[in-house]
Amino acid sequence: MELQLINLIGAAAIAISDSIQNAAKEATGNTASFPAALVIVERYPTITVDLLGQYLQLSQSGAARVVERLVNQNLVERHQGNDRRFVHLQLTSDGKTMVEKVQQAKIAAVSNLLKPLTAQEQQQLLSTLSKMAGQYSNTEVLEEYICRFCDVSECPLQVCQERLEAWEKKG
After folding, report:
1. What is the pTM of this model?
2. Residue 160: in which H helix or E strand, if any?
């Protein structure tokens, strides 16, 4: 039974990931790192290009290209930080609208996958996934990569809320 469960979890993870990425691509007309970057910039206003690249597992030049596309489409603005070596990113109003489209596309895609489950089964799945979530990663960068399309305001995990609060305190 365990090998069957492992196979099905692996297949489900890929199906869910593909569904979210395809929905995000369709919502933005861009590759998956583009909408994921928007979601992360919304989550962490004033994030640097370097940290965004780490969270998306992109090289420095790859992160710079994504940011350039976001800026050219008027979705993100660059701001010089107090330390002139760092450029901070912030969503524009168009960027905020695009993040909402990405989130709605994600909700529709995953909701479609949940249709066969009853409300009780969905609650059980939420409980099971919450238990498993602590095993996904032990580094902030990997956790952010895994959660790159998440709406953190809807996350049941305390670690996500704590990270967001810490960021807000940093200002």
Report:
1. 0.87
2. helix 158-170
- Other CB atoms within 10 Å distance of the CB of residue 8: 10
| pLDDT-derived band at 45, boundaries 50, 70, 90 | confident
- Detail the DSSP E strand segments found in the chain: 47-48, 76-80, 87-91
Sign of torsion over alpha carbons 51, 53, 57, 60: negative
Among residues 24, 123, 62, which one has the least CA distance to residue 52?
Answer: 62
Region 8-33 average pLDDT: 93
CA gap 49, 61 in Å, rounded:
10
| Amino acid at site 146 | I
What's the length of the chain? 171
Amino acid symbol at 7: N
CA triple 136-48-35, angle to 5 deg: 60
Helices (H) and strands (E) in the chain, counts: 8, 3
Report the distance separating Cα 131 and Cα 162, nearest Å: 17
What is the pLDDT averaged over residues 32-50? 93
Q: Each residue of 67-83: pLDDT tens digit?
A: 999 999 999 999 987 77
